[in-house]
Every structure is written in structure tokens, then in C-alpha cells.
Amino acid sequence: MKKFVNRVDDVLTEALRGFGAAHRDLVAVKFDPTYVTRAKPTKVGKVALISGGGSGHEPLHAGFVGTGMLDAACPGAVFTSPTPDQMAAAAQAVNSGAGVLFVVKNYEGDVMNFEMATELLDFPHATVKTNDDVAVENSTYTTGRRGVAGTVIVEKIVGAAAEENRPLAALRELGDRVNGRTRSMGVALSSCTVPAAGKPTFELAGDEIEMGVGIHGEPGRRRVKHKPADDIAGEMMTAITGDLGAKAGSEVLLLVNGYGGTPAMELYLMFDAAKRVLDGKGLKITRSLVGNYCTSLEMAGCSLTVTALDAETTRLWDAPVHTAALRW
Amino acid sequence: MKKFVNRVDDVLTEALRGFGAAHRDLVAVKFDPTYVTRAKPTKVGKVALISGGGSGHEPLHAGFVGTGMLDAACPGAVFTSPTPDQMAAAAQAVNSGAGVLFVVKNYEGDVMNFEMATELLDFPHATVKTNDDVAVENSTYTTGRRGVAGTVIVEKIVGAAAEENRPLAALRELGDRVNGRTRSMGVALSSCTVPAAGKPTFELAGDEIEMGVGIHGEPGRRRVKHKPADDIAGEMMTAITGDLGAKAGSEVLLLVNGYGGTPAMELYLMFDAAKRVLDGKGLKITRSLVGNYCTSLEMAGCSLTVTALDAETTRLWDAPVHTAALRW
Q: Which residues in chain B have Cβ-Cβ distances shorter than 8 Å to A298?
């Protein structure tokens, strides 16, 4: 295993310490229990937005802590759910009285631990579960669909709405609505190596790709021979748009998300390929995002996400955001 | 070779088409000859800032076209200098009468082609050559030191000054000054594959790393056994700070630049490691940047860059920027 590591047990602590130092104008990093908050306290009257999950998907979620997006993030060990005490401590720290909304990717460990955390809270709370991955119905770590890169879009749009001091129930409804209009699918060209494991999570032959891969390297739909980018994008976009069911003429956001080991050049080439599919279906790309947002360590591959937008969600997408990884 | 590609000959065209579509609010992409400009014309009175070089280093340079940074970028084929006609066409397109400043990374092909381009121009022009890489003195593709990730810092600071309508000579002087206060060094944990070559540029054994690697995978100082992150960062920072010669108490910008295949977690861990070295030398990190800014396709590895700041360069670093890859 060749990685920038000192002791495997210290990877997360050192990385979070570096993250906190590099972005000290934006965030504060706490240890024991571990969570990341904004540098400034939550405004009174504002619902606090919290997310979390296993590490290894950076910038998800700590990179999205800041004005217009999350109030706190709880990073677990690599590809491992954070613990209820982390989540409860983060919630206590950022609740300003208006309650907290948890955004949880649909994995059994995460869902269970966030539920346990809420039992420790004596103030209002609600949860939005994301499950945007159309690749598989049930999977290695889930009952139902997996929550993947579409979670970034939910966090951005709900985060903008939270800045407007909307009440908890309205934010949960908005989060469910955005998740319900979002579909994703991924593909892996290579595996990835969890530092503590020291060897690749799975093996792919030199000419194989994993269609529908999960963000922990868990199996997708099928393993196929490597094929041209247009064929890969075509298969993914057919699954996504077929499931989304947006009518011709609809406005959509297209996110091309790198898994950590794919050159920007290839992500933009995939954007071009995916756009041609959407153009052919009469879906209009009015907002775009291309880059590493929900990664799987150094996996080569990408996911495509399409969100059907309306006037309100477009406005909230465009609202100012100031985080380590998303800023405008 | 597993990459998101249709035909190898079309990689650059399709990627640039995707880039242009994803960022059509910011940039316009032209073909034959190929260059990228801002979506809006250069303001009258403003010197136009142009950079370029081989592709494969994205977001450098096209990702830095926009308000507060470049007016145009000329992407060559992968790891190949752009041609003089590209550069001259870009210069003609963005010159608003105040002339153009070229920012050129010190590689023989780039320097020669930019010089030939200037012979085609009938308006004022000047050039800043970047050579921030302390790893080697002369190298495979250079006489003198190589220009690497520090170029991003030169482009940001000079770009901000250009928005203030400073004259050409002052901008060149500023660019030379920032370059003169900037030092970088890189390390590769893996090779990378140029699409047209179809196989890795170089070979590294499973336990080897290349200290001082160039951004095309060209040799650095020495090939050594893989070692802890602190040792790698220590060797790089010793070379950088020794050459920079900034006094204790100086304010610096620290850039940890990923080469394309390194997880964000490891880049932040390297930030932490590099920061401890700077702390030990009494150098104060007042500005930070961590991410993939000057890549080598999907190479695993990173470079560290330190720029000694003063009040003026800090202010210009903080000035608004609105590009695909850098925005605040």
C-alpha cells in the first residue's frame, strides 16, 4: 500500500487536523468525540443541518460545512458509520434552539446510528434519508437503494433553505422532495484501498469495469468488459433518466462526480457524453457540477447524477455557499 | 489502459467541449486553433493574462480562466506544448488594446512556442516565466528549473492585479516577484498514462516513490523506498524552505497540490505534516490551498508549494476570483 500515511491508526486524526488548519476561517474540528462544525455558532432561529458517514468520501461531508450548507459533519472511520455519541455531540453543539435536521445516506449502519443518536436528544429533530442510487434495489449494506453523490445536491439546496430560517418540517419536506427528484449511478474502473486493510477492497481484471458500483467499492449491477465512454455514459443515463421519468423539456442539474482517481479531463469527457444523452431526450441542463465531491478514496471511476429542478430548487442551488469544497 | 475515452484522438476535443458546456456562464471554447477565453470580452484598458501548456494538468490552465485570473488558456495535446498559432489566436482574441501578459511554465517547448507566438503579434506583450520547482536544476525538458504548481499562485495574484488595470510592465514585475518568492517540490507514488501512449509513462516498483518528480512523470531527485508521510513532507519542506530562505516570522501561503490520483484525506494529512515543519521553522501559514490544481493525469502523489507573502500579495490573493476551479 502506497499512501501518504504515518501510522494507520492516526490517518483520520491527522487528516482532520490538516483540514481544520487549512480551513480555520470556516470550520472547527473537535475530537473525542469527533465532529466538524462551522467556525461560527448557528444563528438563533436557524435549524442546524448535520450530516455524516464513513470517511473516505471526502469532501463529503466535512468539506460541505459552512454558510449555506451544513452546520456540522460527523466523520466515521474509513467506510464505517460514525457513532451515535459523535452525532449527538455534534447536534448538541450546533442546535441553536430551532432543532436539527440530519441528512443520512441510506446505509444500515448509518441509519441505525443516527436513529440511536436522536434518542439522546431533548430538542426537535428530523431526518432526511437519501437513496438516489438507481443501480441496485437492495445491496451489501442497505435495505433499499443506496445514498450516494445526490446527497451533495440535497445538502446544498436544503442548506440554502435553512439559511432562510425555514422551520424543521419544511426543510425535511424539501430534502425529501429533492432526493425524490434525484437519481445517480456509478462505475468503477479500479478498486480502492482502505488504509487499515492495506489491500484493495475488490479486484477488477485489466479489462473489466463494475457498472453500478457503490461508493465503498461494493458490487453494482454487473461486471463487464471495458467499453467506450459513450457506451458507459449511455447505459448509466438510460437507467437514471428511465427511473427519474422527467418529461422532455424539463430542466435538470447534471453532476459528474469523480471517485478520487479520475483525471478532470475524463470527467469533462463524461459530462460531454452524458449531455449528448440528455440532449437526445430533450432534457435541458441548466445547472452543472463536475469534480470530486463524493469519492471512494482513490478509486478510478465516476458517478452521474441528474436532479430535476424547478424554480425554487434552482434559486436555492444558486444561493451563496461558502464551504471548503463548494463556494459561490 | 482503462480510461473514460471514446477515440484516443478525440479525448481533448470531447473534454474541452464538456468543459465549455459545464461552465458556459464562465468560458467560451474555440477550436482550430484551440483556446479557451472568458465568456465576456476583456475590459478596455485591462491587460489580458494568458497561459497555456500541455493538457493533462487540469484544472491548470483552462480551469483558471475567469474574472480575477486568466483571460485565456491554450491547451496543447497531453503533455505537449500548444502551438504558436493557438497562442497568437488567443492573444488576438483577448487583447483589448492594453496588451497581453503570457504566463509560461519553464519548459523548452512551451518557452520556444510562446516566443514564436509573440513574433506574430503587433501589440504590446510581455512574459513571466515560472520556475518554482526546487527538485532539480536542469531536467528532461528544461534548461533551468521547471515551472509547476506555483504557477497557480502567480496566475491568481497577477490576475487580481490585472483587474485593477495595472500596466503591462508592472504586472510582469509582479509576476516575476511572486515567482521569485515561490518554491515547490513534488513526489510520485505512482505513474500516469498518457491516452495516446496507452501505457504508463514510467514504472515504479511496489515499494518505491519518486522524490522531486516532474509534472509529466519525468525524473526527480532520486527514487527511494516508500516512507512515512512525515519523512516525505520533511524532505520536501527542507528543500523548499532552504531554497526560499524566508526568515522566521514570515507569512506564507502553503499549497498542497494533488497530482490527480490522491485522496483528499491524504492531501490534508500532508498539509498537517508540512505545517508542522513550517511551525518548527517559525514560518506562519496565513493562506492555504489544498486540492488538485496542477495535476499529472491520474498520478498518485502531490507537490508542496510555499510562497512568501507580503501585505500586497496577500490582498491580491484574497481578491475575488470566479473561475471553474478557483472561486471566492
A: 261-263, 300
